Model the fold of this input.
Amino acid sequence: MDTLGLDIGSVSLKLVLLSGEGEVRFQEWRRTSGRPVETARELLSLVIRTLGDERLSGVMVTGSGQSLLAQVLG
Done:
């Protein structure tokens, strides 16, 4: 199973999807341009397309925007 990592800050969002073997399956960096939640949703939709029917083993979120993202996405 894959693991998703997000680093959401005031300026940018970094995202990586790692396979169970630790290989990078997908990675992306984007400026948030004052829209951190919208940017996260855009990147998460790309991850969902990459995963298809697969499930994640875990999601890790760091950065100054982690609390905001957790509240919005549940």
